[in-house]
UniProtKB/TrEMBL annotation:
Its EC number is 2.7.7.7. PANTHER family: BLR3025 PROTEIN, BLR3025 PROTEIN-RELATED. It catalyses: DNA(n) + a 2'-deoxyribonucleoside 5'-triphosphate = DNA(n+1) + diphosphate. Monomer. Residues 240-337 form the DNA polymerase Y-family little finger domain. One of its GO terms (molecular function) is transferase activity. The lineage of its organism: Bacteria, Pseudomonadati, Pseudomonadota, Alphaproteobacteria, Rhodobacterales. This is DNA-directed DNA polymerase. The keyword Coiled coil does not apply. Poorly processive, error-prone DNA polymerase involved in untargeted mutagenesis. Copies undamaged DNA at stalled replication forks, which arise in vivo from mismatched or misaligned primer ends. These misaligned primers can be extended by PolIV. Exhibits no 3'-5' exonuclease (proofreading) activity. May be involved in translesional synthesis, in conjunction with the beta clamp from PolIII.
């Protein structure tokens, strides 16, 4: 079967995506379309990233500064570009294109490649397929250039440099840039007077390879069909969802848990095949009255062990109102993470599963974000020597390295009445009188000058560990540059 490749190029994909989302009546909107452009911040200024046909008619072009564009066209309307959304939209178009053939791949950031060999007859032939695709894209408000050829390179050249889709498949009269060359090679060929593809085919191949490198010859062979070029199809995104339809409605908690166990076994098998773990699970229970209830489970760590996950559903399932019975159950992992196999040795132990299960149980009651842990931070400033992170999305780190012992409690500095660089023999703190017993220090800590820390404006600090006769073990510091004493922490 002869290979036939269709190239679809969307020259204004980002702007078309935004405009079609805003248009209520696309036909009326297209007739009165005003100049519109998407901008992106580059080289300390906003530049045009993509623009519609009306803006191009005003003399605007990509890469133009936004301020210059508004000087030429005061009526220009602009919005910030979103390349991530554009990529998602192109992927959606690739899935839509599978109505024409199963072999669809992405071509850069604004194009598609289709291998329609064996499927064109379903649309009345190749011409009917291409015409149907053009009509549907036009109704969707998308500007698309479409061409078919025997090779991927020829199809790409016709869509990007062909003047009309009725010109046939001869690419000899197209410029050399149609071979997908880099700008440097294209410029070098132009300077030598080699402007058309026919000029290259008339020269000896050895001369081209010796003067411009093997890439030029490869692109020429790919376009002419001498060298085959593979179209990488768009992979299917794995779907982590399973469903169970019951012959008779159920309503007891034990029956629902039994059904959940069967679903979990199937779902966890899918996750294991893909080396993934579930972070968020949603159990949907459909009742016979067509109503539905959901039980959401957020996990403290990616899991795929059905025996561990099943008990975590008990609290949510117990609160479900079964009504007149549940006849369908659906379990879906809406958030997954890679969970690769790891070797456990005497030097590396596995993460304790009981802690993750406990965090999951508590987190589904008070919220996972409310369960936090302390981790060491790379700073010698006491207030910055630790950080608070969400326990479910972090792992314990250590060890806590410190040249001197640190208090178990740390609070904002509280001033006390004392003078001199040595700890006072007697002082009052929080309306209590203390007598100094044993002292250890000083430990001088300098501020981190590169950070704007208001509490360290007084300069250096000399820290002392003071054991009082009343039994309190306090952490005091003295500021020699702005004399004063403060209490900042308390030891166990």
């Amino acid at each position: 079967m002869r290979k036939r490749v269709v190239s679809v190029w969307f020259p204004r994909l980002p702007s078309d995506r935004v405009l079609r989302a805003r248009a209520v009546d696309r036909t009326a909107f297209a007739a009165t379309q005003s100049p519109f452009a998407l901008t992106q911040h580059e080289k300390n200024t906003d530049r045009i990233y993509c623009l519609n046909h009306a803006a191009e008619a005003q003399g605007l072009h990509r890469g133009m500064g936004l301020s210059d564009a508004r000087a030429y066209c005061p009526a220009l309307e602009s919005r910030p570009a979103n390349p991530t959304a554009d990529a998602r939209f192109l992927t959606m178009l690739a899935r839509w294109s599978k109505r024409y053939c199963p072999w669809v791949g992405l071509d850069g950031r604004d194009g598609l490649m289709l291998n329609i060999a064996g499927s064109a007859h379903l649309f009345g032939g190749e011409a009917g397929l291409l015409e149907d695709m053009r009509a549907r894209l036009a109704r969707a408000g998308l500007t698309g250039h479409i061409a078919a050829a025997n090779t991927r390179g020829a199809a790409w050249a016709l869509t990007h440099f062909g003047t009309s889709h009725k010109d046939g498949e001869d690419i000899a009269g197209l410029p050399v840039a149609a071979l997908r060359l880099d700008p440097k090679t294209d410029t070098a060929l132009q300077r030598l007077g080699l402007r058309l593809i026919s000029d290259l085919t008339a020269l000896p191949r050895a001369t081209l390879a010796r003067r411009f490198g093997p890439d030029l010859v490869l692109r020429l062979d790919q376009a002419m069909g001498t060298q085959d070029e593979v179209i990488s199809p768009l992979g299917e995104t794995p779907h982590y969802g399973v469903r169970l339809t019951l012959p008779e409605p159920i309503g007891l908690r034990d029956d629902v848990m039994a059904g959940t166990a069967r679903l979990l076994e199937r779902l966890c098998a899918k996750l294991k095949d893909q080396d993934m773990g579930a972070r968020r699970l949603i159990l949907t229970l459909r009742r016979v009255d067509q109503g539905a209830q959901q039980v959401e489970l957020r996990l403290a760590a990616p899991m795929r062990e059905a025996a561990r996950v099943l008990p975590l559903f008990e609290r949510g399932v117990a609160e479900v109102d079964a009504g007149f019975g549940i006849d369908q159950m659906r379990l879906e992992a809406t958030q997954v993470e890679p969970l690769l196999k790891s070797q456990i040795t005497h030097a590396t132990a596995a993460r304790p599963e009981g802690l993750d299960d406990l965090i999951t149980r508590l987190g589904n009651r008070i919220g996972l974000d409310n369960i936090q842990r302390f981790l060491p931070a790379d700073s010698h400033i006491p207030e910055r020597s630790f950080k608070r992170v969400v326990a479910a999305y972090s792992a314990p780190e250590g060890p806590w390295v410190s040249l001197r012992p640190r208090p178990i409690r740390l609070f904002a500095p509280e001033p006390i009445s004392a003078t001199g660089p040595r700890p006072p023999e007697r002082f009052r703190w929080r309306n209590m009188s203390f007598t100094t017993g044993h002292v250890t220090g000083p430990e001088r800590i300098a501020p981190e000058w590169w950070l704007p820390e208001d509490t360290w404006r007084t300069g250096l600090r000399d820290y002392w560990k003071v054991d009082t006769t009343q039994g309190r073990r306090l952490w005091l510091f003295y500021t020699p540059q702005n004399p004063g004493w403060f209490v900042q922490g308390e030891f166990a």
